[in-house]
Write a structure and sequence with these properties.
Blueprint: E1 8-13, H1 16-26, E2 33-38, E3 48-49, H2 57-66, E4 71-74, H3 77-81, H4 84-90, E5 95-96, H5 100-107, H6 109-118, E6 126-129, H7 132-139, E7 146-150, E8 159-162, H8 165-176, E9 188-192, E10 197-206, E11 209-212, E12 217-218, E13 221-223, E14 227-230, E15 235-238, H9 245-265, E16 271-281, E17 284-291, H10 299-302, H11 310-319, E18 333-341, E19 364-368, E20 371-373, E21 379-381, E22 385-393, H12 396-409, E23 415-416, H13 423-428
Parallel strand pairs: 1-2, 1-4, 2-3, 4-5
Antiparallel strand pairs: 6-9, 7-8, 7-9, 10-11, 10-16, 12-15, 13-14, 15-18, 16-17, 18-22, 18-23, 19-22, 20-21
Helix pairs in contact: 5-6, 7-8
Length: about 425
């Protein structure tokens, strides 16, 4: 029998992913008390927000103890890499999110690549470098385009897909010589460029047990038609129909199962989300990256499609009881458009007032990401990615129509969003 569900939950983080998690946890039949640290303007309307930074690991443990929370769900990667999971478990508090050894698969691209190669999991060939000269020499032996990655965490911006040798050499020097990413770029990965369509797979993992969540497809680049620099994600949709049932079976057999088993063989007791970035190449699916937490904005379309109790799912994973969980998935399509501040992912304004359409359509949810309240109590922009507008509808086209109608109705002078989220799937049809 699964354990009784917790009555109080702390969600760590303050972005759109965390707003989606808070909403999903509040919808549990267990009706838990939900606290969020630090949260944002939107989350504060749904749950108690406490101003503790997500990377302030020691204070978060004190907060969890003081509030007598029975369960902690960690959203972002940084606190996991800093050992928040280890410290909470040492204090006897169940956690959804891996310990630092598991979080290393996101905190170090080198560690992940070596694990993939060790266990024969499909991935691009790569070289590992700490010095400029050998890296430049290796570049000249490979084909262009080529990918240069900072080893450590870089908020989704430490990857350069170089279209020329000069661009690749510039990226190498940028990371290793000028230190653009600080300690995160002291070691780099140079890997062959894979071609095809990308998809994201979120896998809830508990040791050797796992549950695959609905498929999704993200839009990383800032501009329509996948142009401009990479971002943390400008929108997403679910399901990704390019991942047919047969292809999903292949991905599970060649990637998911051997990855989960390989992680366990390394002595890592992983309890959290394994986010697998996959390129669907003509030769078959291949791993681009591992993340060790829910994706953002993938969470904003995946969780709303679940018919299962999300609190029960995450609690079962944290408690080692995932083997008995059956996942229910709604048949509808979900699409999320990220509303960003003009200038993102570089410099952008903060403090612009946001006014929302009211009432919202019943099938549309606005998840807050980079928002805050000004002294007048107004909701204002406070980050690069400001909002995620998610619509659920019987078809992807209908979901896009409904989401974009709300995006157009949001009043904010610095708002920017792509106009083609979901276009790849819609045009394929």
């Amino acid at each position: 029998m699964p354990s009784a569900l917790p009555k109080s939950v702390l969600v760590v983080g303050g972005g759109g992913r965390e707003h989606a998690l808070v909403r999903a946890l509040l919808a549990s039949p267990a009706k838990p008390r939900v606290i969020c640290a630090p949260g944002n303007a939107g989350i504060s309307a749904d749950a108690l927000c406490v101003p503790v930074a997500a990377d302030d690991v020691e204070t978060l443990v004190v907060l969890a103890q003081r509030e007598q929370v029975e369960f902690v769900v960690v959203g972002p990667e940084v606190p996991l890499a800093l050992g928040l999971g280890d410290k909470l478990r040492a204090a006897g508090i169940p956690v959804y999110g891996p310990n630092a050894d598991g979080a290393r698969m996101e905190a170090s691209k080198t560690f992940t690549k070596q694990l993939l190669l060790k266990y024969g999991i499909p991935t691009a060939p790569a070289g590992f470098f700490r010095e400029v000269a050998p890296a430049l020499a290796y570049l000249r032996t490979r084909s262009i385009p080529i990918v240069v990655k900072a080893d450590g965490l870089a908020a989704g911006k430490g990857v350069v897909v170089a279209q020329t040798l000069a661009e690749a050499e510039g990226a190498v020097r940028d990371m290793l010589e000028t230190g653009r990413f600080g300690a995160s770029g002291k070691e780099i990965l140079i890997e062959d460029c894979l071609f095809g369509e990308e998809t994201s797979l979120l896998v809830v993992v508990s040791g050797r047990d796992y549950v695959i969540l609905p498929t999704s497809q993200d839009h990383k680049r800032i501009g329509d038609g996948d142009t401009g620099p990479n971002t943390g994600g400008m929108g997403t949709y679910s399901p990704a129909e390019v991942v047919t049932p047969q292809l999903l079976d292949t991905i599970e057999r060649t990637i998911v199962r051997p990855s989960v088993q390989g992680i366990a063989r390394e002595g890592i007791d992983f309890r959290g989300t394994l986010f697998i970035g996959i390129m669907l190449t003509p030769q078959g699916p291949s791993v681009l990256e591992f993340n060790t937490r829910f994706g953002d904005p993938e969470t904003q379309v995946v969780l709303p499609r679940l018919n299962s109790d999300v609190l029960g799912l995450l609690w079962a994973a944290a408690r080692g009881e995932l083997g008995n969980v059956q996942l229910g998935v709604r048949p509808e399509h979900a699409l999320c458009v990220v509303v960003a501040a003009k200038g993102y992912p570089d410099s952008y304004p903060k403090g612009d007032t946001i006014r929302f359409p009211s009432p919202l359509p019943a099938n549309v949810t606005i998840y807050h990401a980079g928002t805050a309240r000004n002294p007048a109590g107004e909701t204002v922009t406070h980050g690069g990615r400001v909002l995620g507008v998610t619509a659920i509808a019987p078809s992807l086209a209908a979901a896009a129509k409904d989401a974009y109608a709300v995006c157009d109705a949001i009043d904010c002078k610095s708002k920017y969003f792509r106009r083609d989220i979901g276009a790849r799937q819609l045009n394929r049809k």
